[in-house]
Amino acid sequence: MLRVVKLILFHILLSFRGLILIASKLLSIACLCGLFLVMSISELNHIPMSAKITLLTCGIIFTSICWFYDYLILYLKRVIIRVPISSEKRHDVAIKGENDSYS
């Protein structure tokens, strides 16, 4: 059951990858620029510290989503299990063509 959930989540996250990455980049830029403007403009110094911490936290969260989204997709990737057909070891043999030389 868990494998099915991981497979469905993998395909959903992969389908919306571009949209989520662009949105998280834009939101992180907006939050961090808003924090910079609030800290630098003297008329906006009356804004409480909780709002400034919220802007900083949202900026960090959206930046981490942007950085680690691909790692999450790779974590959910389906593992391919190779089952040997016979008990004999497989030997890869290179076949020489007519024009190949042995030197």
Written description of the protein model:
The protein has 103 residues and is mainly alpha-helical. It has one domain (2-76). It has helices spanning 2-15, 17-40, 49-76.
What topology does this entry show?
Layout: H1 2-15, H2 17-40, H3 49-76
Helix pairs in contact: 2-3
Radius of gyration: 26 Å
Please, what is the average pLDDT?
A: 80
Query: Biggest β-sheet, characterized?
Result: none
Which sequence of SSEs, written as H and E, runs from N to C? HHH
Task: List unreliable stretches of 5+ residues.
Answer: 91-103
Question: Percent of residues in beta strands?
Answer: under 5%
Q: Oligomeric form of this entry?
A: single chain
Identify the notable features of this structure and list them briefly.
single chain; 103 residues; mainly alpha; 3 helices; disordered C terminus
Quick recap:
This protein has helices at residues 2-15, 17-40, 49-76. By secondary structure, it is an all-alpha fold.
